[in-house]
Amino acid sequence: MSGASIIVDPQVLRVMHAHLFPLLSRVEQGGFLLCSVPPDDKSLEFSVLDWIPLRHQDYRIQAIDYLELADEARVRIIKTAQQQQAALVEVHCHPGAYPACFSHADIAGLAEFVPHVRWRLKGKPYGALVFSKNSVDGLSWFGQSNTAVPITHLVAGERRIDTTRLTGKLHGEICHAQT
Question: What is the pLDDT of residues 86-112, one digit of tens each?
Fold first, then answer.
């Protein structure tokens, strides 16, 4: 059983983690990774080109347990990906002490947003990561399938970071592994 992976520069990962977990913050934070992917989708790999952190004004709602992007931010992010012919990986954090896993609200938001953004990006793959302070979980959509493939790991330089894969265990109906 295998899944997708994300290749990210270690410095980008450090900057991203610092943005997601600022000192004294108790609200979720987020951003997007612009990525290249192999043209055939067979390797299920995202290679990070750039990190776009979201700012406070990019959210319609920003709370301890929920994020919702403002329409202007959605448009800006999608346009940026279109201009760079890049795939997108959305990233957000759960500031609590639990292992990383997408919440029911996250799953509902992905079910609504992923088909739209993939249509806007002409079928490019899409990914989503959720970080806790000490772990990460992820989902991805490749090819024509509306079913998610788990992101199994991130590679940052020499370091391999395995995901928790808790989302697949708790919300198995939305994802499957590629063999």
Answer: 999 999 999 988 999 999 999 999 999
